[in-house]
Amino acid sequence: MTPRILVTRRIPDSAVRLLESAGEVWVCDQDRAMTPAELHEAVHGADAVVTMLHDRVDGEMLDAAGSSLRVVANVAVGYDNVDVTALDRRGVLLTNTPGVLTDATADLTFGLLLMTTRRLAEGERLIRSGTPWAWNFSFMLGSGLQGKTLGIVGMGQIGRAVARRALAFGMDVVYTARNRVEAEVENELGADFLPMSELLERSDVVSLHCPLTDSTRHLIDGTALSRMKSSAVLVNTSRGAVVDERALARALREETIAGAGLDVFENEPEVDPELLELDNAVMVPHLGSATSETRTAMAVLAARNVVGVLDGSGPVSPVNG
């Protein structure tokens, strides 16, 4: 019997063609997140499902799929939208798309860092508003990066790529992570390992690259923000819920920290209204992997994972199993 493959969002044609080599493909024709009810109806009888980060893959979804489901291919590095335990209980494989979005996300991180420290978004808004301005020595002064300390929270592939970019800008790098990286990696990056509290106190820029777990949810809360320098900047390109947005808005408004660059939000696509009112908050709509090359590579890797499971050769980037 021909395997049935569900794709919950439109993806590049090259990935669809690859999936079609392995089975009958159904792609959601509405380019938006499927509602849980729509997902549960569509997934019934599927052998494989290609999911996006806003698709909730839990016991109810798996029950709706039935016993035929063999693989969930999540088009993202993180899989906080997936109940891995529920998949394990049913013998369903989970795959993700690591590696292919590392450089794009690291580039976006540095873009946000520069936009925040050099007040680029604020300056662009000023120009577009038609507000009169004139150059002078104190006009819209920002902060340079040379000799400053970048604190990286989570030293995986993306964290390391950000560290390499920081070296090119003449920054010093410190990091914290669940597990300390190998000595050769620390030497390559000139990175010093610090406890979280000390990293917050020493860093001029804190950049978040950790997965969203129970232990990292609201990792950056009011207490953490109060430890940072008043001149420091926070950048988040990981997951929105790693930051307590209400606490961050308060810290920015009260100038507990100098600024924040955000690509992700706790309740996407909603953004805390207080953040929208603050000039020292730079925000973009989850663009970390948003290059045509990267999004295509992510979709193709997900498709390769599906094909590998269905033809028996095995997935390229498994999470469980």
Automatic annotation (TrEMBL):
- Give me the segments passing through the membrane: none
Q: Which domain of life is it from?
A: Bacteria
Which residue intervals define the domain D-isomer specific 2-hydroxyacid dehydrogenase NAD-binding in the entry?
A: 110-288
InterPro entries to which the protein is assigned, alphabetical: D-isomer_2-hydroxyacid_DH, D-isomer_2_OHA_DH_cat_dom, D-isomer_DH_CS, D-isomer_DH_NAD-bd, NAD(P)-bd_dom_sf
**Alphabetical keyword list:** NAD, Oxidoreductase
Gene Ontology MF annotations: glyoxylate reductase (NADPH) activity; hydroxypyruvate reductase [NAD(P)H] activity; NAD binding
What cellular-component terms does GO give this entry? cytosol
Q: Which residues form the D-isomer specific 2-hydroxyacid dehydrogenase catalytic domain?
A: 5-320
Q: Does the keyword NAD apply?
A: yes
Q: Which family does it belong to?
A: Belongs to the D-isomer specific 2-hydroxyacid dehydrogenase family.
Q: What is this protein called?
A: D-isomer specific 2-hydroxyacid dehydrogenase, catalytic domain
Tell me which species this is from: Actinopolyspora xinjiangensis
Q: What is the lineage of its organism?
A: Bacteria, Bacillati, Actinomycetota, Actinomycetes, Actinopolysporales
